[in-house]
Design goal:
The structure holds two protein chains of two kinds. Chain A is of the alpha/beta class. Chain A has eleven helices and 26 strands. Chain A has three domains: about 180 residues, 3-Layer(bba) Sandwich (FAD/NAD(P)-binding domain), CATH 3.50.50; about 130 residues, FAD/NAD(P)-binding domain, CATH 3.50.50; about 80 residues, FAD/NAD-linked reductase, C-terminal dimerisation domain (Enolase-like, domain 1, 2-Layer Sandwich), CATH 3.30.390.30. By secondary structure, chain B is of the alpha+beta class. Chain B is built from two helices and five strands. In chain B, strand 1 and strand 2 form a beta hairpin. Chain B is globular, with a radius of gyration of 12 Å. The chains are: A alpha/beta, B alpha+beta. Chain B: It holds the Pfam family Fer2. Chain B: Belongs to the adrenodoxin/putidaredoxin family.
């Protein structure tokens, strides 16, 4: 579109997706108004460190400062109207306006929903006790961090990325940690069985009591409203003066639903990230889109997904790149103590797995094949494999399982022969 | 306080005074220095905080870890002998001043 000074793009959500979009719009030469509206009080900050480095800071009780997404100077220089502690409460699609919780009304030419996701909360007896935390926002992280100096027994509900990142950080501080996971292996939704089982052993070596096949049944209190124990579905009782619930998220679709936009496991957008209203877009954790590599509608929760979609949308909105479907390769990472997990592509149950490297050394990759072609690569403390895999998968190239397993096969050189760049 | 000088590809210069213990990436991101992204939050996972450290400071830097070494092979702008990830270089003890050149792009 031709952008003029009268254009105003309103972005609801000032997390990774929203802020990157604002940045990329300016970088692409958009000269109209850009307003970011975020319901958290804090200035836009990075979430990934909150379950990792942030928890390791031992600073005499003071809450560590989060890592900002951009400095305040950046917002000023780029003329970004960044409002914090204010929620968008409604969308008037006909009038092209949004209502804010502070009573103001903002007109938009294009509206972008980057509302993110919210933690799922345990729905079992005792879930309302104090001391049961989620870990997503800065406020969550501050509340957890404040307790870590005195907590002795922590119980983690759910062996996903967040739960295991927390478990490793808590173990490093000498806290006794029990992880309850209903599935038979950790990170089952994201990882192949071999990688998942390697992580189970690694966490047990860190001293974490990983209880697989056990979900949470109830919490019991100390009589003063504070959690004291977690009771599992197997009937075991685990003492807990802090509970960390890492049982997934739900996309924040309530605004979209109230406005009558299509919702399908997230705000439903097409391959150009447009919702069922041509002047409203959605991206990041809150949006489901036709995923090129999976060949299905998917909603992904990752920094890469948020930032690459934001760059793509900025190009579409400013007309600076040829219109086309969003098709970047998904990749993910998790840091659990000294373990660095990097995933390129999307694995699926039933993938054939091929091991590269020796897991006993703590550095290896698992190559996942589907229908004879490389579909995903999971790397542990092996960033070179990960980056090579990203190059190959982004270019739609494969290698034979024999090559993948051969330690003498030069994966890096092979991947570098791919003529395209990593894309972004 | 420690001093960091960022030389932008276009010729602009940003000079920061920061607390000892601050990484080049955090200093840049916190103070709105363009040209450093730090998308992974300092985990040496994304190679978007690539800097070229001026010759005279190279000897005072910590060794390049295996992980950083691998990621430096994957930066958008070409790696040189002066390349480091800004998230892995911290000012303070032994490095109370440092000057770096920024690549033209990070992603």
């Amino acid at each position: 579109m031709d952008t003029t000074a009268r254009d105003r793009i309103v972005i609801t959500g000032n997390g990774q997706a929203g802020v990157q979009l604002a940045d990329s719009l300016r970088a692409a030469g958009f000269t109209g108004d850009i307003t970011l509206v975020g319901d958290e009080a804090a200035f836009p900050y990075q979430r990934p460190p909150l379950s990792k480095d942030y928890l390791a800071v031992r600073d005499g009780g003071a809450a560590p400062a989060p890592l900002p997404l951009r400095g305040e100077k950046f917002f000023a220089d780029a003329r970004l109207d960044c409002r914090t502690g204010v929620a968008v409460t409604g969308i008037d699609r006909n009038g092209h306006t949004v209502n804010l919780s502070d009573g103001s009304v903002l007109a938009y030419t294009k509206l972008v929903l980057a509302t993110g996701a919210a933690n799922r909360e345990p729905a079992v007896p005792g879930a309302g006790l104090a001391g049961i935390h989620g870990l997503r926002t800065l406020a969550d992280a501050e509340a957890v961090h404040r307790r870590l100096d005195t907590v002795r027994n922590a119980v983690v509900i759910g062996a996903g990325f967040i739960g295991l990142e927390f478990a490793a950080a808590a173990r490093a501080r000498g806290i006794a940690v029990t992880v309850l996971e209903y599935a038979d292996r950790p990170m089952a939704r994201a990882l192949s069985r071999p990688t998942s089982e390697w992580f189970a052993a690694a966490h047990r070596q860190m001293g974490t009591a990983l209880r697989l096949g056990e979900g949470i049944a109830s919490f019991t209190g100390d009589g003063a409203g504070q959690v004291a124990a977690a009771v599992s579905t197997a009937g075991h009782t685990y003492p807990a003066d802090l509970v960390l619930a890492g049982i997934g998220v739900t996309p924040r679709t309530e605004l979209a639903e109230a406005a009558g936009l299509a919702v399908d496991n997230g705000i439903a957008v097409d391959a150009s990230l447009q919702t069922s209203d041509p002047d409203i877009y959605a991206l990041g954790d809150c949006a489901s889109y036709p995923q090129a590599h999976a060949g299905a509608r998917l909603r992904l929760e990752s920094v890469q997904n948020a930032t690459d979609q934001a760059r793509h949308l900025a190009g579409t909105l400013t007309g600076t790149v040829p219109a086309g479907p969003y098709a970047e390769l998904p990749w993910f990472w998790s840091t659990q103590g000294a373990l660095k997990l990097q995933i390129a592509g999307l694995s699926a149950p039933g993938d054939q797995t091929v091991l590269r490297g020796d897991p006993r050394t703590g550095r290896f990759s698992v190559f996942c094949y589907r229908d004879g072609a490389l579909a995903a690569v999971e790397s542990v403390n092996q960033p070179a494999d990960h980056m090579a895999a990203r190059r190959l998968l982004a270019a739609g190239r494969t290698l034979t399982p024999g090559q993948a397993a051969d330690p003498d096969f030069d994966l890096k050189a092979y991947a570098k022969r791919v003529p395209t760049s990593l894309g972004t | 306080m420690a001093k960091i000088t960022f030389n932008h590809a276009g010729g602009d210069v940003d000079v920061l005074e920061v607390e000892p213990g601050t990484s080049l990436m955090r200093a840049a991101v916190t103070n709105g220095v363009a040209g450093i992204v730090g998308e992974c939050g300092g985990q040496a996972m994304c190679a978007t905080c690539h800097v070229y450290v001026r010759e005279e400071y190279l000897d005072a830097l910590p060794e390049i870890s295996d992980d950083e070494d691998e990621m430096l092979d994957c930066t958008v702008e070409e790696r040189t002998d002066r390349s480091r990830l800004g998230c892995q270089v911290t000012v303070g003890e032994g490095l109370d001043a440092v000057e770096v050149d920024l690549p033209e792009s990070q992603v």
